[in-house]
Design a protein that fits this description.
Elements lengths: L5 E5 L3 H11 L4 E7 L12 E8 L2 E7 L11 E6 L2 H13 L3 E2 L4 E3 L5 E6 H9 L1 H11 L7 H9 L1
Length: 157
């Protein structure tokens, strides 16, 4: 296990979520699946308790902790994309697998985990500051999934 690992709480589907992420994002994989050595408040001995996984190179563990805590937008994975095809592929994988669209490049997977599918051109425009940042920001504020061509046009003014 890595020295610093993100722990993501799931009700009971950590393994399914980890396998979906591994199938969807490059540099992602499922590692150890650890089963409960005894009964616990929201599970039984032998149930999947912890799943070690990597998402786009980031080490994580999924903890099947039960329904006590729910995900919200205070935590999200941000995936930088280079093309519209890549943006569409990730967005459609998440939303099309029981997920939900939100605004400004945000969506949630079917387990309630938030994702930002962010084209690099948007990040670059916002970092540039000035008029191009304002135009790109204003364009982004009208979108759900980010449209790279619209952001590029906004940058140029």
């Amino acid at each position: 296990m890595a020295k610093n690992t993100i722990c993501v709480w799931y009700d009971k589907d950590a393994e399914a979520a980890a396998r979906f992420y591994a199938a969807t994002f490059p540099d992602s994989a499922v590692g150890a699946v650890i089963r409960a050595p005894g009964d616990y408040p929201d599970g039984k001995q032998g149930d999947v308790l912890v799943v070690e996984f990597t998402v786009a190179g980031i080490p994580c563990i999924g903890l099947n902790g039960g329904p006590a805590f729910k995900h919200n937008e205070a935590f999200s994975f941000q995936i930088a994309t280079d093309t519209q095809e890549e943006t569409d592929r990730y967005w459609n994988a998440i939303v099309g697998n029981g997920g939900q669209e939100s605004e400004c490049g945000w969506c949630k997977d079917k387990w309630g985990v938030s994702w930002q599918i962010t084209p690099r051109v948007l990040s670059e425009a916002l970092s540039a500051g000035g008029g191009q940042a304002k135009r790109a920001f204003d364009a982004m504020m009208t979108m759900r999934k980010i449209d790279i061509a619209v952001i590029e046009a906004a940058r140029r003014g």
